[in-house]
């Protein structure tokens, strides 16, 4: 089982290697891939040391699976080249997510749609993954009519440059800026770039990807995405309007029984999800579950997950596990 990790030296790529090791993914040969300035350098994986390869060398090696986390332009150029030699690509960028011929997969929801013919598989956006994992069982049971989402997103979603900016600001030092404003003691209501309609790309990902994953274009979705000075994970306030009446106890039972979801919801003991507890974990944490008394069939909840884990690396590795476990590679 040859496995290439493209973007192995990046923030998400490093977590992918960690998750592959933790979950004992059956790798017989690891092929780490990075930019030309890193080719020839060494990285550690489990007990071994591995040389970083060029993209061309990795393609020539014909790995069974290539997990990409190297940006949209790289994926658009090289994913088809891997696919052409028989490699199944799991891509973490936004390049293929809305492509009509590419499946957008959260394994607990729609991995069963995958076949051997799917040579490029899209990993959804981090903020989408954690939300739809909690929304999917509710949609099956009650039908979701509308979602109103506000996100409070970790700087790790921007990358190493953003983490360095925050650390510099903590220390009172000047340095390269990932954002147009300070992030320390601030909240920036702009994740990704603004579009002509006034929404950012991140906000539109929540709209379009949710409808595609849940396979229901009738779900109305609106979102506001905010960057905050947090490292551990993304948080989301989600207002869910359902087609049917519900009992809060049933909502909690459904979520408790959902694979990959942990309910943390006890106001009496100040138990609720927070990124400080989600960091380094693979689950999606749900709490503050309560009825919205301003509107029929509507509830609020608070959803938190480590965006580098289930929001990126863990979801990609789970897709790879499904492919191997079902003989699709």
TrEMBL record:
Q: Which residues bind NADP(+)?
A: 9-12, 37-38, 307
Give the pathway.
Amino-acid biosynthesis; L-threonine biosynthesis; L-threonine from L-aspartate: step 2/5; Amino-acid biosynthesis; L-methionine biosynthesis via de novo pathway; L-homoserine from L-aspartate: step 2/3; Amino-acid biosynthesis; L-lysine biosynthesis via DAP pathway; (S)-tetrahydrodipicolinate from L-aspartate: step 2/4
Which sites are catalytic?
126, 234
Task: Give the main EC class.
Answer: oxidoreductase
**Residues holding phosphate:** 97
Annotated catalysed reactions? L-aspartate 4-semialdehyde + phosphate + NADP(+) = 4-phospho-L-aspartate + NADPH + H(+)
Which SMART domains does the protein's record reference?
Semialdhyde_dh
Q: Which Pfam families match?
A: Semialdhyde_dh, Semialdhyde_dhC
| Domain Semialdehyde dehydrogenase NAD-binding: residue ranges | 2-117
> What EC number(s) does this enzyme carry?
1.2.1.11
Task: Note the superkingdom of the native organism.
Answer: Bacteria
Q: Which UniProt keywords apply?
A: Amino-acid biosynthesis, Diaminopimelate biosynthesis, Lysine biosynthesis, Methionine biosynthesis, NADP, Oxidoreductase, Threonine biosynthesis
Q: Does the keyword NADP apply?
A: yes
GO terms (BP aspect) = 'de novo' L-methionine biosynthetic process; diaminopimelate biosynthetic process; isoleucine biosynthetic process; lysine biosynthetic process via diaminopimelate; threonine biosynthetic process
Q: Identify the residues that bind substrate.
A: 153, 227
Q: Which GO terms describe its molecular function?
A: aspartate-semialdehyde dehydrogenase activity; NAD binding; NADP binding; protein dimerization activity
Subunit structure, as described in the record:
Homodimer.
What job does the chain carry out? Catalyzes the NADPH-dependent formation of L-aspartate-semialdehyde (L-ASA) by the reductive dephosphorylation of L-aspartyl-4-phosphate.
Which protein family is it in?
A: Belongs to the aspartate-semialdehyde dehydrogenase family.
UniProt protein name: Aspartate-semialdehyde dehydrogenase
Q: What is the lineage of its organism?
A: Bacteria, Pseudomonadati, Bacteroidota, Flavobacteriia, Flavobacteriales
């Amino acid at each position: 089982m040859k496995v290439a990790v493209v973007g192995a030296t990046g923030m998400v790529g490093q977590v992918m290697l960690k998750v592959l090791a933790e979950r004992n993914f059956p790798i017989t040969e690891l092929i780490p891939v990075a930019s030309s300035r890193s080719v020839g350098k060494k990285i550690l994986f489990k007990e071994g040391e591995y040389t970083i390869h060029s993209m061309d060398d990795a393609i020539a090696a014909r790995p069974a699976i290539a997990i990409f986390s190297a940006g949209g332009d790289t994926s658009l150029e090289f994913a088809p080249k891997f696919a052409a030699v028989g490699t199944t690509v799991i891509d973490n960028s936004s390049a293929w997510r809305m492509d009509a011929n590419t499946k957008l997969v959260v394994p607990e929801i729609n991995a069963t749609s995958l076949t051997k013919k799917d040579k490029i598989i899209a990993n959804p956006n981090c903020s989408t993954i954690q939300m739809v994992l909690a929304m999917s069982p509710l949609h099956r049971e009650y039908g979701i009519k509308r979602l109103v989402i506000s996100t409070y997103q970790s700087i790790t979603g921007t990358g190493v440059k953003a983490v360095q900016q925050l650390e510099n600001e903590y220390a009172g030092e000047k340095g390269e800026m990932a954002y147009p404003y300070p992030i320390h003691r601030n909240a920036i209501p702009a994740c990704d770039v603004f579009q002509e309609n006034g929404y950012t790309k991140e906000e539109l990902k929540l709209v379009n990807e949710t409808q595609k994953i849940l396979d229901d274009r009738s779900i109305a979705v609106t979102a506001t995405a905010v960057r905050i000075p947090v490292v551990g994970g993304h948080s989301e306030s989600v207002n869910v309007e359902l087609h049917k009446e519900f009992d809060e106890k049933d909502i909690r039972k459904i979520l408790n029984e959902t694979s990959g979801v942990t309910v943390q919801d006890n106001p009496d003991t100040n138990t609720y999800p927070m990124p400080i507890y989600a960091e380094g974990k693979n689950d999606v944490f749900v709490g503050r579950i309560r009825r919205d008394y301003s509107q029929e069939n509507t509830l609020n909840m608070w959803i938190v997950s480590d965006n580098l884990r289930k929001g990126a690396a863990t979801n990609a590795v789970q897709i790879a596990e499904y492919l191997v476990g079902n003989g699709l590679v």
